[in-house]
Amino acid sequence: MAYSPLTEQLMEALQVLPGVGSRSAERMTLHLLERDREGGQMLSQALQRALDGVMHCARCRVLTEQAVCELCQNDDRDHSRLCVVETPQDREAIEVSGGYLGDYFVLQGHLSPIDGIGPDELGVPLLLERVKSGDIEEVILATNASMEGEATAHYLTEQLQPLKVVVSRIARGIPVGSEFGRIDSHSLSQALQDRKPLGFEHD
Amino acid sequence: MAYSPLTEQLMEALQVLPGVGSRSAERMTLHLLERDREGGQMLSQALQRALDGVMHCARCRVLTEQAVCELCQNDDRDHSRLCVVETPQDREAIEVSGGYLGDYFVLQGHLSPIDGIGPDELGVPLLLERVKSGDIEEVILATNASMEGEATAHYLTEQLQPLKVVVSRIARGIPVGSEFGRIDSHSLSQALQDRKPLGFEHD
């Protein structure tokens, strides 16, 4: 005889979480129902509130409760620079490094045709639109130094090149193949300082 | 700058799950909010429904939506035999093995003084009460062959001995130190067949 229907359903549902298979879902379910119902209550509510309240910032696509996130609204930031990152974690890592005071654009991933993630999924149209709007002087491509990150940066360079804006790539101060989350703030800050304009001519 | 408040709160809440630290909670949160809000919706609801609807069976302490679980209500079962297991997974494993047709009592753990888990936490009073009620002829101690499982079986034997009931221990067909979840149904079924009465006298 299996578990009760509602227990089974919870085990099913937990498997939407990345890295959670049937065995860990079972362990999690029994933990919540046997030992930590209060924690389960908190989790269910926090999840519902986040799903209801959290959206994408209309300017940088980061997750926020506001239509435009606080950072995009903050006029102490240099809105003429736009740093393009793959994920909110990357943006957070750069913020912690303290080496950058401009705006961000969060792709929420990198180009990955095999997963059906193309320019539209990464909000590239919104990015180009924003650059065309004219108030941006420099776009800093701070995608990961991984193969996918480089490919994404290369694609964006081609798209941005015609737009009469300085396009630069974060310096290779970051170990090739690594991801931001793992790098100390200082190297990250250095890498941003050392960014080099990509050498193409504006005629 | 950190994540938005509701996003942070979700990352916090996810860490009530066993084996989930801050890094995986972050990954899970972004996955749910960026890529699978529908799955998140399902999870939040399944969790709420389980917390509201799932309780312990009044007879065997297993998780169920009913006051008394279906198995305890099923009159095709031999209600004169009671198989004591540590967890619902163990009960499920024995059911799948098909080697047993009596009732169960689920301790929901094993004696572990260091974790503050004593006889009361395991529902031992309820177990003894049920045996005293007189309709039980045999109690099969099917706790794990681990040190804790053996200790728990030993304690239960002492408690049950005075109660004029046959007390038997599941046979050592199960590898010492192992846990039921990992054992094939056949060995488990055999081990149940081979159970031996514990040799003490009823005067």
Q: How is the topology of this model organized?
A:
2 copies of one chain form a homodimer.
Chain A lengths: L4 H10 L7 H14 L1 H17 L1 E2 L6 E2 L5 H4 L4 E8 L2 H10 L4 E5 L17 H9 L5 E4 L5 H14 L5 E4 L15 H9 L2 E2 L6
Helix pairs in contact in A: 1-2, 2-3, 5-8
Can you give a write-up of this model?
The structure is a homodimer of 203-residue chains. Helix content of chain A is 43%, strand content 13%. Chain A has 203 residues and is of the alpha/beta class. Chain A folds into two domains: 5-53, Orthogonal Bundle (Helicase, Ruva Protein, domain 3); 74-197, 3-Layer(aba) Sandwich (Dna Topoisomerase Vi A Subunit, Chain: A, domain 2), CATH 3.40.1360.10. In chain A, strands 4-3-5-6-7 form a five-stranded mixed sheet. In chain A, strand 5, helix 7 (147-160) and strand 6 form a beta-alpha-beta unit. In chain A, helix 2 crosses helix 3 (37-53). The termini of chain A are far apart. Chains A and B meet through helix 1, helix 2, helix 3, strand 2 and helix 5 of A and helix 1, helix 2, helix 3, strand 2 and helix 5 of B.
